[in-house]
Amino acid sequence: MQLMLLGLPGAGKGTQAERITSDYGVPHISTGDMFRKAIAAGTDLGNEVKAYLDSGRLVPDELTIRVVRDRLEQPDAQEGFLLDGFPRTLPQAEALDETLAAMGRRLDCVLYIHVPQEVLLARLTGRRICKSCGATYHVVFQPPAVAGVCDKCHGELYQRSDDTEEAVATRLEQYAQTAPLVDYYRDRGLLRQVDGQRSIDDVYADIRGILSDIRA
Ligand code: AP5
Ligand code: ZN
User: pLDDT-based confidence at 126, cuts 50/70/90?
Assistant: First the structure.
């Protein structure tokens, strides 16, 4: 399956991606995660993108498109993938179409997780992530059994540098560039909307329903 998750920052894309990749075996391709890993490793890419991520601005299209093209060529992405956080602008969406067409592939479905903007600040400022395995938690909505410690691997939990009120405000502004993608994929008959304002389990149950339709 060749899937994409679309939605505002904090809509629950990464949270649902953890479940989809573990149940369906498709690699999770998150541009945000790739950039954060590059920053942590101190690579040239990391140095180039750090200021964008810290402030909540979008990384330039050309660079982002190059990173995703390289990733889609990796062996593990040949049978399917789950894109998360890419594309985020119309030029990125067009570049993705071109890349997939050149590979003789196409998207099966765009899962659009819809949430009202008011709930996002609380979701993002309360988010915690495992330093070791990347699992996502929330201090109120999805707390670990022991505060600050990952349930899965006992790793230490940290807060993302762009989950401050200031950076979240910038990220929400930047979403104006992503919003047109909803129509872009709806016009192509690929968009499936999910109500993301319910519990994590309920959202995932809807996604499973959609994915079983696609596979049928
Ligand atoms: P990225 O990492 O993609 O961040 P984002 O889109 O802002 O998305 P998030 O990861 O913040 O949110 P999410 O929807 O995954 O929410 P989550 O599941 O964690 O991008 C970061 C930065 O990288 C960008 O700002 C930009 O600089 C750069 N970048 C990345 N891609 C780019 C691109 N293509 N072009 C240019 N620049 C790019 O959930 C959030 C919290 O809510 C968690 O704590 C979770 O536990 C909780 N939660 C989840 N679901 C629910 C629920 N149903 N009920 C209650 N709580 C919930
Ligand atoms: Zn962990």
Answer: very high
